[in-house]
Here is the input.
Amino acid sequence: MDSSNHLKAAAWWPSPAKLNLFLHILGRYPNGYHQLQSLFQMLDFGDRLAFSVNDTGLITLSPSIEGVADDDNLIVRAARLLQTKAKVTQGVHIQLDKQLFMGGGIGGGSSNAATTLVALNHLWQCNLSEEVLAALGLSLGADVPIFVHGKTAFAGGVGEHIDATELPEQWYLVVNPGVHISTAEIFGAPELPRSTPPMNWQDYCFEQTRNDCQQIACKRYPEVAKLLQWLLHYAPSRMTGTGACVFATFADQKLALEVQAKLPCNWSSFVAKGVNLSPLKQKLYEVNAARDMN
Ligand SMILES: C[C@@](CO)(OP(=O)(O)O)[C@H](O)COP(=O)(O)OP(=O)(O)OC[C@H]1O[C@@H](n2ccc(N)nc2=O)[C@H](O)[C@@H]1O
Ligand SMILES: Nc1ncnc2c1ncn2[C@@H]1O[C@H](COP(=O)(O)OP(=O)(O)O)[C@@H](O)[C@H]1O
Here is the structure.
């Protein structure tokens, strides 16, 4: 797959991927969740969702995701949550174009939920603020608020303390080693390091950070270690989130595509640009501008 303009087509709302350029675990809250520091890089590549509002009051999805009941799908759960909170009587049929690897640490489910909240807030005319949408999103998953805000950002807490930032727009080769890693499994591992000292965002430098989940993922899933080793021959590389995808960083698209072409064929991948403003946020600006002109 190549990064493309497909996220921009008119009726579709983009649902982009993210990378965690680093992921530090500082400690654990009494409820068992982990206190994190991370840099979320938005990408210009992802899934797409289209919404057809109707008067049935029902929320339907097609196609369903294999292995995920519609009632558990974060898209349907986000739509229901908004419908209830904003007392909406309308329904919606949602079409999903899934491109992102699932369980890869690139945020597909959380991004789908955020796109649903942002798009339906507009289409159902709920007029909820971004902060309220982000708070609703947090009840669905720790990463949903980041995608609602739609900016490359440092995040603290479980992901709810967000500081937008501007990074040089680099290119990333994102590779799936073909294993599915559950977030809960990694966070439940007794040997997970949980005491990285807090850092100031101003001091960020890629080389001086790490992903605290990477060592465990490599040990439990040797395919992740193999992939990481392979990519490190070509570029600075690291696992994203709790895995399983690994990204390699390049100054331009051509270099990223050259390395992608050399990948062994059992590893699927995509090349994407890191962006400071997410394609979802760009789409929202466009639809708001079009509405204001009418
Ligand atoms: C750590 C990150 C970084 O992006 O990993 P990825 O899932 O993207 O790989 C995310 O914040 C993950 O967020 P998300 O995938 O939404 O997690 P949730 O559904 O909220 O939680 C899944 C499970 O992971 C554990 N969990 C999650 C987040 C956190 N800060 N501490 C935790 O201990 C909890 O056991 C929870 O039951
Ligand atoms: N719309 C959705 N897209 C992807 N996964 C979803 C969705 N709804 C629920 N899920 C569940 O969330 C799990 C994590 O998916 P995903 O967000 O892609 O991974 P990650 O959190 O590692 O980035 C999936 O394995 C699936 O069971």
Q: What stands out?
A: The longest strand covers residues 34-54. The first helix runs from residue 74 to 85. The two ends are 37 Å apart (CA to CA).
